[in-house]
Amino acid sequence: GGGLPPPRSAPRGKRQRFVDKNGRCNVQHGNLGGETSRYLSDLFTTLVDLKWRWNLFIFILTYTVAWLFMASMWWVIAYMRGDLNKAHDDSYTPCVANVYNFPSAFLFFVETEATIGYGYRYITDKCPEGIILFLFQSILGSIVDAFLIGCMFIKMSQPKKRAETLMFSEHAAISMRDGKLTLMFRVGNLRNSHMVSAQIRCKLLKSRQTPEGEFLPLDQLELDVGFSTGADQLFLVSPLTICHVIDSKSPFYDLSQRSMHTEQFEIVVILEGIVETTGMTCQARTSYTEDEVLWGHRFFPVISLEEGFFKVDYSQFHATFEVPTPPYSVKEQEEMLLMSSPLIPPAVSNSKERNNSVECLDGLDEVGTKLPSKLQKITGRDDFPKKLLRMSSTTSEKAYSMGDLPMKLQRISSVPGNSEEKLGSKTTKMMSDPMSQSVAELPPKLQKLSGGGGRMEGNLPPKLRKMNSDRFT
């Protein structure tokens, strides 16, 4: 009342995230022990997963060691045959012509490996060991080229960079949409090339304790973003707003604006699709902590119609504005709705329920059993259906009760001026009609009791049979 500003909550420390905004997971594996040998069993994937600086270092080191090793082998063969001392003797045929020291042996290997072939150094037929070494060099060189060049090509063509052109909004928002409290965030594609079969998923990471006392620090719960309706399959041509309806099945069923200041959770968003140009699967990730969820906000529209095309304004991609939103959780709203209207008349959903009066009476008994204990004491179990029937005589319930009557009674009661006595007399006349006609107008359940069109006196208790006989007479 004094106009003082609300007290500000104490600033929180830096929030430890499981997934960064750029999609990198903050997880480090330690104390593997003897399990590190598993990385060597899948060496190709290990090299691809390494950072670029380590890949370039391994690439250069492997080729350098292989060249020096093979050049040394050629030098050893020339040294053992004595070709180094007789290199300038024209009458002598060496294993490799013009190889008289280690640099010349290295140049011969490079010329052979790169298939340059200057023609100055060449292998002769007087050296069988040189021929074997030449074959070994060709096979080893092909394996090294296929392994390292293939590794570099796969690393360069990885679709991780394609994920950088997929945008997520900086904040998520909670507001009303279609009359329901909804969690929303926005995704967009900056490239003109499409993401084929794009699909989005959401995970809620939150710590909890089981009834047995087990503590789960990162319990993963699924957030439904349209899996049942197919809304999770995206046609990502323009920015889309992804919605999660908060209902009784949602993990945010108890979440309110007040409880967001004490909750700690993280929403991980995973967007997967196939890159149209390369055909490779791409995955983009981001996350939203509780501080990045705005209560009572909605995203600005970013699409406008121009002359012959739709224009997307990415300057408003992350912008939100406030909208009226109740600060209560969905659970609290449902409880307040039940407290304000404890008695709810039975709803008629289809024509079968309108024609079945027996099922309506059974439903009234069930309503009586579901009332609170205090209301059950007031109304009484035996008198409760009768009082509800008496209440249904008001104007608001006439349409519902008339739907349960046969067509003749509806036409009679719709005529103004007919009193209840006239209605009762005409009903008595109708009861005196042939039984086949009245049975045809009965609900299915009573028709089944009537035995396919016969009279029902055989199936009734003696007390009701006597009442019917007195009434007809």
Automatic annotation (TrEMBL):
Q: In which broad location class does this protein mainly occur, judging by the first location in its UniProt entry?
A: membrane
Per the record, membrane topology reads: Multi-pass membrane protein
Q: Using the UniProt annotation, give all residue ranges assigned to the region (Disordered).
A: 414-473
Q: Where is the Inward rectifier potassium channel C-terminal domain?
A: 166-336
Coiled-coil features, chain-numbered ranges: none
Q: Which residues form the signal peptide?
A: none
| Transmembrane portions of the chain | 56-80, 130-154
What's the catalysed reaction? K(+)(in) = K(+)(out)
Q: Name one GO biological process term.
A: regulation of monoatomic ion transmembrane transport
Gene Ontology CC annotation, any one: plasma membrane
- Which ranges are annotated Polar residues under compositional bias? 425-439
InterPro entries listed in its UniProt record: Ig_E-set, IRK_C, K_chnl_inward-rec_Kir, K_chnl_inward-rec_Kir3.1, K_chnl_inward-rec_Kir_cyto, Kir_TM
- Give one Pfam family, short name only: IRK
Q: In which compartments does the protein localize?
A: Membrane
Q: Where is the Potassium channel inwardly rectifying transmembrane domain?
A: 19-159
Keyword vocabulary terms for this entry: Ion channel, Ion transport, Membrane, Potassium, Potassium transport, Transmembrane, Transmembrane helix, Transport, Voltage-gated channel
GO function terms (MF aspect):
G-protein activated inward rectifier potassium channel activity
State the family it belongs to.
Belongs to the inward rectifier-type potassium channel (TC 1.A.2.1) family. KCNJ3 subfamily.
Q: What is this protein called?
A: G protein-activated inward rectifier potassium channel 1
